[in-house]
Design goal:
By secondary structure, the chain is of the alpha+beta class. Helix content is 50%, strand content 15%. Among the domains are: 170 residues, no CATH class; 75 residues, Alpha-Beta Plaits. β4 and β5 form a beta hairpin. α2 runs parallel beside α4 and α4 crosses α10. The longest helix is centred in the last third of the chain and has 33 residues. The radius of gyration is 34 Å and the shape is globular.
């Protein structure tokens, strides 16, 4: 028998065995699927009669719209929206959501317009359907771009109305259950997308039952052989543990009976996918995964949760470090329970979870518990779950405000979809939940965006800490701010939350645009003065100047003057060419070149341009002017400027070989530049220092640099140097070439230094 045929036989047998031979009392599994309206109607008894009539009308409309359309399995297409509506009915969603579930493919597949749905079923239902509709009718460069835009549309609709994602998750679950008829490539792609996006969203919203089923279905489709082998191993292990499971359950029930506490004890078994993931994370075999099964104990009230914990700890010994109180500190998706791991009579570890009935409802249905149990117990648990989920949904809108690119938006959302959290405290003892690996920068932005934008330092447990320090549960974090502080681009490499990342990126983009705009304005003014003309006024009251700018932006293809200046500053357009077009437009309006300006080449003192064709650099230009890392120019070096395409002005030394090669290839993009008389900051350059190897060498080198009033910014050590001597490469901060010469002299006088020189990459 071939391996393929063996796997084909093994997989269904293993799955049936899982269903038949379970020794543990299982949780309620997936609800019975419906594919006819009669079956759906049986689930809609909780709706008012008037709402039931509206649902029937929606069904008739959808049935007519999908008439003649079939699924890949050969079934009439209407069976799919009916099944999706049935899943929504299991959550007891309202009539608008049930109607939207029935109609969710009519716009996308059948050409029905949103206006038609508004007229027939009302705006709320039409908005839900529209939020579920992909953007396939628009033109995109790639399928990934189309997918990212569709995700963004759906997630933003979800942030406004959570019913959108509940319907979408029901839609995806039914598709996953019926995926076998699809082509293998499409099955694999949809399963991967579900595992990466939809299953984490279900988890983030607390829909744990759906989360587990989606993971199982994806695992089965992506890795059918592994799934079958693990299913068989789980079945075999379940048989071996029959006695211990029954014994533990009887002893637990007896212990609670003695304390006269009414409890519901049910078995809980790890899903095959969670076992597989644990094996991969721990690089362990199936035999090393000890907590495959456990028990869930549902008690009447909150106090009984902690009493139940005491009863269990009297029965069996707890495993140190394996107790978690998710009641006092809920998970990010609202989940609440007490977890403890105990040593069973046979020495195996068994996990117990204790929760109230309302906590159990939230644990299984998450935010859907708002509808499913809204007429039942009115404890705070479900409210907390809804509040936490709503906070995450609101954060999607905040990220959208900062991020206009769909792929970037999806990247930020993915970061926030994995809520393995640490719990830290503010100085006022407020608990903050952050993703594992979060830093003080994430903490600052979680408090408020203004705190993040102006932070300069952080204290953890009262002690100063680096901003890239990973926070641990229980840390007390204090953020220190300063009015003039601004986000640092290096923070992007250390943050873990989508909110922090999007806020930092948004600020840096705005700063880059402002700096590039200022540089573009200076360059255009310089180029115009070479034509003997002054830059037109930017005052909106000056009608002639406004019309001139409008003509120029139409010619350049920009939306407005600011965008044109940014393009000039970033090198996307050449200032000389734009200036000549501006001079032509000004000439048409009778504005003639100034003869005095053309002959004397003198300009106003407030501009950076003081000689025709020369731009002065003083260090205050920000990201719009970059010093080339190949030659690292400093004041005193002869310099030239290369206007890169989209990178702004790149400054090279005149003798830089890289700069000369760029000039030969692209000579029209070079500008004459010079150092300003007044500089605003020190500049960095590289030194190669050959030293005798021995104790205290680094200290002596650092002392020499400090004596010369310079700073070491970075240090690298050559690993290939001989044992007697070693080469250090220092990045030092100096004022100019004169200051650099003083640093070199001071280093040469040090007894450990054998040779020192300025270091360049070319």
């Amino acid at each position: 028998m071939s391996l393929r045929s063996l796997a084909a036989e093994l997989l269904p047998a293993a799955l049936q065995g899982l269903q038949r031979a379970s020794l543990l009392p299982q949780l309620s599994g997936p609800a019975a699927e419906v594919n006819t309206f009669a079956g759906l109607s049986e689930k809609l008894g909780y709706l008012a009669k008037a709402d039931g009539k509206l649902v029937r009308e929606a069904y008739k409309f959808a049935d007519q719209a999908h008439l003649g359309q079939f699924r890949a399995s050969g079934q009439p297409y209407i069976t799919h929206p009916v099944a999706v509506a049935g899943l929504c009915a299991d959550w007891k969603l309202d009539a608008q959501a049930i109607m939207a579930a029935l109609l969710h493919d009519t716009i996308e597949d059948q050409g029905v317009t949103k206006t038609q749905l508004i007229e027939k079923f009302g705006a709320p239902t039409a908005d839900l359907v529209d939020g579920l509709t992909k953007l396939d009718k628009l033109q995109f460069n790639t399928r990934e771009e189309s997918q990212a835009e569709s995700f963004r549309k759906m997630l933003l609709a979800m942030a406004r109305d959570v019913r959108v994602i509940l319907i979408k998750l029901a839609d995806r679950l039914h598709n996953m259950r019926t995926m076998q008829a699809m082509a293998p490539e499409k099955r694999h792609r949809i399963a991967r997308e579900t595992l990466d996006i939809y299953a984490p969203i279900a988890h983030r919203l607390g829909l744990n039952q759906m989360y587990r089923e989606l993971q199982e279905l994806c695992f089965e489709l992506l890795h059918p052989w592994r799934h079958a082998a693990l299913a068989k191993a789980v079945k075999r292990a379940r048989g071996h543990r029959r006695d211990i499971v029954e014994r533990v359950q009887k002893e637990v029930e007896k212990g609670f009976a003695q304390h006269k506490i009414k409890v519901q004890v049910s078995g809980r078994e790890k899903t095959i996918y969670s076992i597989y993931r644990k094996m991969r994370e721990k690089h362990a075999g199936f035999a090393q995964v000890s907590d495959i099964f456990g028990f869930r104990i549902v008690v009447p009230g909150l106090t009984e949760c902690y009493i139940a914990l005491g009863v269990l700890h009297q029965l069996y010994k707890p495993v140190p470090g394996r107790f978690k109180d998710y009641i006092a500190i809920p998970k990010a998706n609202g989940y609440q329970s007490l977890h403890t791991t105990l040593v069973s009579p046979l020495g195996t570890a068994v996990e117990f979870q204790m929760r109230t009935e309302s906590m159990h409802a939230v644990a299984e249905a998450g935010i859907a518990a708002h509808w499913l149990y809204k007429s039942g117990e009115k404890g705070s648990d479900k409210g907390d779950a809804q509040r936490l989920s709503t906070m995450w949904l609101q954060s999607l809108l905040d990220i959208q405000d900062e991020t206009r690119d769909a792929a970037e938006f999806l990247e930020h959302v993915k970061i926030d979809l994995y809520p393995d959290a640490v719990y830290v405290f503010t100085p006022r003892s407020k608990i903050m939940a952050l993703p594992r690996g979060a830093t003080p920068v994430d903490f600052a932005y979680a408090i408020h965006s203004d705190v993040g934008q102006h932070m300069v330092a952080a204290k953890i447990n009262g002690e100063a800490a680096a901003l890239r320090t990973e926070l641990k549960s229980g840390d007390v974090v204090e953020i220190i701010t300063a009015p003039g502080a601004r986000p640092n681009p290096a923070w992007l490499s250390m943050v873990r939350t989508g909110r922090a990342r999007s806020k930092i990126r948004h600020y840096l983009k705005n700063m880059e645009a402002e700096e590039s705009r200022a540089m573009g304005e200076k360059m255009l003014a310089q180029a115009l003065r070479a034509e003997g003309l002054q830059l037109p006024s930017t005052d909106p009251a000056d009608a002639q100047a406004t019309a001139l700018w409008q003509q120029l932006t139409r010619w350049s293809g920009n939306r407005n003057r600011g965008e044109l200046l940014v393009d000039l500053g970033l090198g996307r357009k050449i200032a000389i060419i734009v200036a000549k077009r501006m001079a032509q437009l000004m000439g048409e309006r009778g504005i003639k070149p100034d003869a005095v300006m053309l002959t004397l080449n003198r300009y106003s003192p407030d501009d950076t341009v003081t000689t025709q064709g020369v731009v002065f650099v003083d260090g205050s230009e920000g990201n719009s002017v970059q010093l080339a890392p190949c030659c690292r120019p400093i004041p005193g070096d002869p310099i030239v400027g290369y206007l890169g395409r989209g990178e702004g002005l790149l400054v090279h030394t005149a003798e830089c070989h890289t700069g000369k090669r760029l000039f030969e290839r692209d000579s029209e993009r070079w500008l004459d530049i010079a150092w300003a008389d007044e500089l605003t900051r020190p500049f960095e350059t590289s030194l190669a220092v050959l030293v005798r190897n021995g104790k205290g060498v680094l200290a002596q080198v650092a002392s020499a640099v400090s004596t010369a009033e310079a700073d070491i910014v970075h240090l690298d050590m050559d690993p290939t140097s001989a044992e007697e001597s070693i080469e250090l490469r220092l990045l030092v901060s100096v004022r100019d070439r004169v200051h650099l010469a003083e640093v070199l002299r001071t280093l040469r006088r040090s007894p450990v230094v054998q040779r020192v020189a300025r270091y360049k990459l070319n």
